[in-house]
Amino acid sequence: MTGALERVDVEGWTCPVPLRDSPYVVMGHGGGGAMSAELVEHLFLPAFGDAAAGDLGDCAELRLDGVRLAFSTDSFVVKPMFFPGGSIGDLAVNGTVNDLAMSGAVPLVLSTAFILQEGTALAEIGRIAQAMGAAARAAGVRLVTGDTKVVDSGGGDGVYVNTAGIGVVPSGVRIAASRARPGDAVLVSGDIGVHGIAVTSCREGLEFGTEVRSDTAPLHGLVAAMIASGADLHALRDPTRGGVAASLNEIAKAAGVGVELVERELPIPPPVRDACGLLGLDPLQVANEGKLVAMVAGEDADRLLAAMRAHPEGRAARRIGTCVPEHPGMVVARTALGGSRVIGMPLGEQLPRIC
């Protein structure tokens, strides 16, 4: 390994710390925050060169004979594999379905690839496969191709799953982070931080008086209802790794707008707030698997909220802020005391291995 590292031109990379100062991967590189972005921008993209796509969203749009196709892929390494409200199986299906949905696409087909550790109980793999099948049927997608690999005992951690998906973007739909504009209302479809705390409480054996269950769910039906409302919908994100903080920072940077949140409007349920207080976590950086954030023209906010609240996955939707021309690329929150605080891009991941 040392010889291979010596042959790599580390000094040729353009990344600041931690890539330049460490020749090794750390957990933060997979957290969906600033370290993940640096890894992609300063290592992968220069290496890929002209073969890389220009748009770095969770979903790529391709055109085939005039049809707009959405394509996305994701890998899931959640630990434990089974948690309150779900498992790595339904998480894998719903996660890829939602990545497609954030472009406005109607998901159609998914691939499934498994990396299994030698010695894993077949009964556990069966449970995961059954959960994937049930989630696919509920989302109305087909599992059309896949692959299976096995690694030595100790070379993995039970089951890892990769899913890739293809969907069709309806004519006239144009949803992208770069379309957010000053004056846009910032909406969220429901309580935040639930999935991350559900997985963590199960992993660490924590109890908070009531069971916190993952919010994993497919969101393409909600997105279809939002589009059908006729509201001028600009941007969508499902705030998974890095939570709401990462998603809003990505949109703010892509669109060159500032985002102002009203802290008292953030829908953080008491168990999540209590758990974050106990563990020293920021709820805005905790992952979600069944929620979305949206930027919509301010005059259409009420219409879109009504459409969201009429759908089962958006019953608790609310407005949490506004896009502003000030401090472009930054997210700030107005506190209950009248002050403000910067909501920065997470560096890595507060809670690793939760998706």
From TrEMBL:
Q: Enumerate the Pfam families for this protein.
A: AIRS, AIRS_C
Supply the InterPro entries for this chain.
HypE, PurM-like_C_dom, PurM-like_C_sf, PurM-like_N, PurM-like_N_sf
Name the residues that span the membrane.
none
- Which first-to-last residue range defines the signal peptide? none
Coiled-coil ranges per the record?
none
Q: Where is the PurM-like N-terminal domain?
A: 58-169
Q: Name one GO biological process term.
A: protein maturation
Per UniProt, residues of the PurM-like C-terminal domain are: 181-327
Domain of life, per lineage: Bacteria
Note the SUPFAM superfamilies from the entry: PurM C-terminal domain-like, PurM N-terminal domain-like
**PANTHER family to which the protein is assigned, alphabetical:** CARBAMOYL DEHYDRATASE HYPE, HYDROGENASE ISOENZYMES FORMATION PROTEIN HYPE
Q: Which family, according to UniProt?
A: Belongs to the HypE family.
Q: What's the protein here called? A: Hydrogenase expression/formation protein HypE
- What species does this protein belong to? Phytohabitans suffuscus
Q: What is the lineage of its organism?
A: Bacteria, Bacillati, Actinomycetota, Actinomycetes, Micromonosporales
